[in-house]
Amino acid sequence: xxxxxxxxxxxxxxxxxxxxxxxxxxxxxxxxxxxxxxxxxxxxxxxxxxxxxxxxxxxxxxxxxxxxxxxxxxxxxxxxxxxxxxxxxxxxxxxxxxxxxxxxxxxxxxxxxxxxxxxxxxxxxxxxxxxxxxxxxxxxxxxxxxxxxxxxxxxxxxxxxxxxxxxxxxxxxxxxxxxxxxxxxxxxxxxxxxxxxxxxxxxxxxxxxxxxxxxxxxxxxxxxxxxxxxxxxxxxxxxxxxxxxxxxxxxxxxxxxxxxxxxxxxxxxxxxxxxxxxxxxxxxxxxxxxxxxxxxxxxxxxxxxxxxxxxxxxxxxxxxxxxxxxxxxxxxxxxxxxxxxxxxxxxxxxxxxxxxxxxxxxxxxxxxxxxxxxxxxxxxxxxxxxxxxxxxx
Length: 393
Ligand code: UD1
Prior knowledge:
Elements: E1 6-12, H1 15-29, E2 34-40, H2 51-56, E3 64-65, H3 73-91, E4 95-99, H4 103-115, E5 119-122, H5 134-145, E6 148-151, H6 154-162, E7 170-172, H7 176-189, H8 193-197, E8 205-208, H9 212-215, H10 218-231, E9 237-240, H11 243-251, E10 257-259, E11 271-274, H12 279-287, E12 291-294, H13 298-306, E13 310-312, H14 321-324, E14 328-330, H15 335-348, H16 367-389
Parallel strand pairs: 1-2, 1-4, 2-3, 4-5, 5-6, 6-7, 8-9, 8-12, 9-11, 10-11, 12-13, 13-14
Helix pairs in contact: 1-7, 1-16, 3-4, 4-5, 7-12, 10-15
The structure holds uridine-diphosphate-N-acetylglucosamine.
The site of uridine-diphosphate-N-acetylglucosamine has 18 residues, from helix 1, helix 5 and helix 11.
């Protein structure tokens, strides 16, 4: 192994990690003093949930795939820790970079902390203040053991300081997911997806639902989908469906909901399910949508950047800037309220004109450069202190 370069483990596990890690890997590859290593835990493993993102975001094949797969939260977390722990012990990276709030994020951060390997957390400090969300536990734990905390919006630093985190560890670098968006947007706008579906710009709604709180209970899921079926009387609803949601939603046999046949077009109304969309296709769909309804975290940010109205079907958001400065509305989980809000958005056409709209601060496509600058500075100093301690300087 090259002793003159810092070995950095960049961890991906689930789909939303990929668009955060891709620009960081690309930026690290530009610096001769860094040796970036891509580690995939295998939390997501279907082609449509993983491989297509690696390809479209130019991440390439992971250097290590731990193939952990699905399981209960504790089993999955433990298995990531076991396998990543063995790898970290064998390879002794100089830094572990984790992103977001999935189980793999927390598991790998804990390994770093226990192995005394520094950990950098990308997208730190976001808080929903809802400990029933598995992601909230992952966020709090990851931040508490991380050495470098990269934030995307001002609320994050406030939350971290409130939890007693050393301010010197916190770096406001902006939103690295927007780096990927900026990189892919032109290609996404040329995606054939809309033509294949037969929908014009602004003539459809995009829906995503996968939070356990929304999809695991059939009664709640039915009530939500029935409200969305009413919304779909005005415009067709395009629903790329997460594997977690797919079988549960289909079993409900909502008459207005049907699977899109790739050979044909969607109709003028109704909910049309699709397999999980690729990054490029999804971005293209969102960019031209009249409105997005979601319970995802990242999509609240992507719609804010694109100026597309977003209704977040949750009681809380860990991304408040998307509401205060962006196009997101936090509407709670009452299906009747969802229906009212959706009808009001469609009636008013609140889509912000790109001319007069500026995205939140440092959501500018250059977050990865700021992140890597901080990382190099940190490793440079750490390398020097190790050398000093060893009497080499
Ligand atoms: C995970 C993250 C969530 C993130 C979401 C994005 C946690 C706690 N949750 O949720 O924060 O928003 O990813 O997608 O880490 N499955 C497949 N194929 C796959 C992956 C999963 O069929 O490639 C199915 C399996 O039945 C699995 C279920 O989806 O049991 C849930 O997968 P899991 O990774 O546990 O959580 P997500 O719901 O995807």
